[in-house]
Amino acid sequence: MLFRQFFDVTSGTYTYLLASAAGREAVLIDPVKEQTEQYILAIQQLNLRLVKAIDTHTHADHITGLGDLRELTGCVTLMGEFTKAQCVSAHVKDGDLLDIDGVKLKALYTPGHTNESFSFVLDPDTPRAVFTGDVLLIRGSGRTDFQNGDPGASWDSITQKLFALPDHTTVYPAHDYKGWTASSIGEERRYNPRVANKTRDEYIKIMNSLNLPNPKMMDVAVPANLVCGRPA
């Protein structure tokens, strides 16, 4: 399988490009508007055809590239069924299977960071990786204090849905701020300081005590992302 991981320094966002091989159809997960030229260049040089672009949720710290990519490539833009972004081409439900020219992704509804967050499991019959958006981060988890976030729902999504995957499943989050590029379900189960050896009530208390400032671009990014980063 062809796999590329892109990084946006400003927002600490990871974007993922997947295809079964060079010359095949491809999918992008969590694209950043300012990095669109990079994605297009990689797609061209690898002789790919972008057919789907996915946002795991409505991001608050960057503007999505969904709209630009749809205009430039004709790809189908996808989000979960509970998103308020009316501009996306199609929606997925919990358990839906996407097959992009042999690359299989299963949609998992994993609310908590937002009430519309989805994760995507690669090769769900024998899970290889999971793209967790902001729900589960490397040695952390996404904040739950805006966009209808819910720390209890976050705990349930992490411990009941994501931790139900095999320990060897690679975790690819939408963000990292320490330079880590990937983790695994087993690592996060054992070493994630917010979850490991914690109870649900303890996790809720931790998340409710973070007192983080709003993302710098929140007032701009959220409205823009409801129209996929550009007018529909």
Task: List its salient traits.
globular, 14 strands, Metallo-beta-lactamase, Chain A, alpha/beta, 6-stranded mixed sheet, 6 helices, 232 residues
Outline the structure in words.
The radius of gyration is 16 Å and the shape is globular. The chain has 232 residues and is an alpha/beta fold. It has one domain: Ribonuclease Z/Hydroxyacylglutathione hydrolase-like (Metallo-beta-lactamase, Chain A, 4-Layer Sandwich). It is built from 6 helices and 14 strands. Helices cover 23% and strands 28% of the residues. It has helices spanning 36-45, 66-73, 151-162, 185-191, 200-208, 218-225; strands at 2-8, 13-19, 25-29, 49-54, 76-80, 90-92, 97-100, 103-109, 118-122, 129-133, 136-137, 140-141, 170-173, 183-184. The strands form 3 sheets. Strands 1-2-3-4-5-6 form a 6-stranded mixed beta sheet. Strands 7-8-9-10-13-14 form a 6-stranded mixed beta sheet.
Question: Which stretches of 5+ consecutive residues score pLDDT under 50?
Answer: none
CATH topology, anyone? Metallo-beta-lactamase, Chain A
Number of strands: 14
Shape, please? globular
For the record, the count of structural domains works out to 1
Helicity level: 10-25%
Oligomer: single chain
* Major pleated sheet: 6 strands, mixed
Task: Determine the structural class based on helices, strands and strand pairing.
Answer: alpha/beta
Rg measurement, Å: 16 Å
Order of helices and strands: EEEHEHEEEEEEEEHEEHHH
In whole angstroms, how far apart are the ends?
32 Å
Strand order of the largest sheet: 1-2-3-4-5-6
CATH superfamily: Ribonuclease Z/Hydroxyacylglutathione hydrolase-like
Amount of beta strand: 25-35%
Discrete helix count: 6
Question: Which second-level CATH architecture applies?
Answer: 4-Layer Sandwich
- CATH structural class: Alpha Beta
Residue-averaged pLDDT, rounded? 94
